[in-house]
Amino acid sequence: MKKPMIIAGLLVALSGCGTNAGPPVNSHGSCSHPFPGNTAVRACVYAGGSLYSVSYRYENQYYWHPPSGYFAVAEVFYKNNAPGRAAGAWKGRTISVGDSCVIDENWIPNTGSGPQDCMDSRTGEYRASTGEEQRSVLKFWQTMTKYVPASAR
What is the pLDDT of residue 17? Predict the structure, then answer.
């Protein structure tokens, strides 16, 4: 269920319905707005892959296009003012790995250890994360912590 929401959000952003120029990013990459006339989507190319971002009123969305050997990773980060977030109902983060793994909410994003569990979006069942999924999420999170300010992630 979460994966279709991420894809739908990215499609809305690409169609020009985003609210601004995307979350701020560090200037250590080459950034652009890849869709003429649509400044809602920002694309930045770094040594660790390309990071696409868009910001809405209540959420930031990221899509990481990795170098070869990794899965693509998408994240929706609901801002503190998002409905339900301020009340502490949930942590506000959904991370999906391109092969159908949705990372368990209990994983605290870090650059040292990968998520141990995930939900397979095809079956709805929880399972252990594979080594490739863990490596991909760690590489994505290393890119995020290096280039995206903490307030936007």
Answer: 36
